[in-house]
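User: As part of a screening pipeline, I want to sanity-check one entry by hand. Below is the sequence and the SMILES for zinc ion. Please return the complex as structure tokens so I can compare it with the automated output.
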Amino acid sequence: MSTSTETIFKHCPVGCSCTLEDTDIKLPEGVLKRCPSCGQLLSSCSKAWFDESMQEFDVPLGTLPSGKNKQRYHQRMGKILNNAKIVTGNQNGDLLRLLDVGCSSGALLRVAKECGYDAQGAEPATQAADTARGLGFEVFPGFLQDAGFPDNHFDVITLFEVIEHLLDPQELLVEIFRILKPGGVLLIGTGNADSWTVGFMGAEWEYFDIRSHGGHISFFNPKSMTLLTEKCGFEVDNISTKRVNIRERKHASKPMYELVKVSREILAIPARWSGKGHDMLTTLRKPTS
Ligand SMILES: [Zn+2]
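Assistant: Here is the complex for your manual check:
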């Protein structure tokens, strides 16, 4: 039984049996740990610190993008969700059923609807879930494991910016596997801890900041993502990464930040080719037999 002051991860959540080791990345809540087997990076914050950071996340606006970001978000997600239709192999124009797990205030659900999906969500942050419902979407206001969806129900399930918050990602993935149709697609979007960005920035990478992200505690890479999802029965269709950063804006002077922007553009292409970008998208399928 753990107490609220002990570090939350005793073992690698991917299921590796080795002892976690310290990295040289020092965060305010403690040194970031690493699984020597799969490379997963793990927060050493306490349970109390984690619970507190999660509560700050429940606001009506949720993760709804605005202004220019909204347009960019719609374009990027539209492309991803249209591609998911191709991966399901169902291009007959049938209405595909999509579930967005951790749908927040419904940003992805709106794009999914535009792409022609029958879209619904699940979201434990009740204020954000209410906003999505206000937009006309059906949203289960709780954790997916409590929703009780039927077996083999959804064609596409999306899990964006969720898995890095979880103490036990296997539990959620097993439930997703159960409710996904055979041949159905799971999309997981999260950061890539094995990225050039982490190499350049270490503890300065904004994604590691537990306070500004409502409890980011578990940082995947292509290897740990593959191991975990295959263990839960999925087939990896594709893992792609993109974007590099070398300095956050708040840590750079104005002229330096101009240089940072140019460097990011130049590095973006080789990072994408070599799987070293910090935005990771994993496309998975539930086998048909
Ligand atoms: Zn591991």
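Points to compare against the pipeline: Residues 67-88 form the longest helix (22 residues). The pocket of zinc ion is lined by residues 12, 14, 16, 35, 37-38, 40, 224 (CB under 6 Å).
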